[in-house]
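Researcher: Please predict.
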Amino acid sequence: MNLKTRDGKNVEIVKHLGNGSLSSRYILKIDGERFFAKIYQNQEGCDGLASRDIIKNEISTYLQMEEWGTPFELFKRFTEIDNVLTLLFEDVSNNYKDLEKIISVNMEPLINEHDNEEKKRKIQAKNYESKTFNMMAMIDVITQVTQKAHHFHTINGDEGIVHMDITPGNIMVYKETIEDKITQKVILADLGLARDTREKDIFKLLNKSKAQGITGVMYYGSEDEPIHNKVYCPPDILEYKKGAKPSIDTYNISNTLCLMLTGKLVEYWKHECRDVKNLEKVLNTKIKERKDSSDITTEQRSKLIEILVKGTQDKADDRYNSSKELLDDIISLNIKPYEEGVIKEIPLPMKIPDVVTNYPVALPRIKSDEKLQQEIERYFKFRKRTDYVHKLETTITNSLQKQKEEEEEKEKEKKKEELLTAEIVRKKKRNNTIKKSIAGIVLAALGTFGITTDCNNLPHKTIAEFNSDEYHITLESLAGNKVGKTADLLLTYLTAGDPEEFSEIKIIEDGKLIKSW
């Protein structure tokens, strides 16, 4: 499919980097020039109008920054590709990685996907103790993030913008060489939810829209709630009715730092310690357990915990109300910036395979109901094809797993049969031994009374019957011989070994039961 910009330039899709919660990311070439492109489209839980409001807000934010004389460092321009609004940035994908990937952030399975507090507790950073990204590097990154946030808040003196979405996924870390020294630099990206500090209505974005109709896992916006990040936002977000304040960003920064240092957001530790008064103690223990805890002093650790606790207070009045206040406290830790040798290497992004595609970059802007319907059908036709491939792979995997389980079950049954056969053979041998023993006991008993014979000419018939492990022994008189006289002695012989082997012993004379045991 030949993609073109509105002014007729050729567009080549180099790589599809993946889909975020609200947008898709690509590496594009436009007339040979390479760009990182961000395209807002219909994602799950986000209708087309809300998606368009967010991308227009991001464009408005960058234009406002340019008007204030401080353009966003990577933003190039916006364009339309097949009538789709597209943001174009300088491509730094080969030498940067977002913080979310560096510390491996994910969300554990949810019990209730509508419980925002559960979501906050289920966020985890699996790689928060990385050898290549230690505590010193983390504090250096959060220092730079706070500096960027302070720049946004005061970009025009007392006027500026509140980012509203400072999360690990929007913090880009890359390496830069300055005067033969390699240092790490940070870009605070993605201003789609940004608000103007002059605006007295938090529902309104910079483009005056409200982006209502978003109900995804991470983001929510409706007539009753302003568009916000449900996981990283402060708990009192609905109290900011008269406009966004820097204390929203300071909460996000502090909570991100908590995730980096402990592997969990502060909501998890508040829930674990039950009493917020114990939060400092819990965080202190967790940070002391880090393998690199010796990199900072006891005093620095205490100050660091104070920053975490103050920065994540539930009420805005109790936490940092300005990024400058938070920045001053972080700088007071007196921790040196990252330099090569302290951190050997910051992991670069995994290589992303090239993709071949013949589907639209994203859903076009809405022109008419008929046009929208056609594009939705084309989009979901592609999704259906993709889902079919995924379903086929899943079916094959399940089939192989089922075959493996069946083979394991057959092997278990085979071993079970072998054990059962061995037990039957053992019981037969045991029964034969018992029968021979009974015959020997009878001969010995008769021999006591001077009766001598052999097993083939016994004066008494011995019958040994068995059912499972129960044995019934009957001595019945033959040819007029009296067995009653020898009953007690015979019983002694029979029970001399293991009396529990026999369930019942009977002495019968002339068809009458004389004794039984």
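Model: The chain is about 40% helix and 20% strand.
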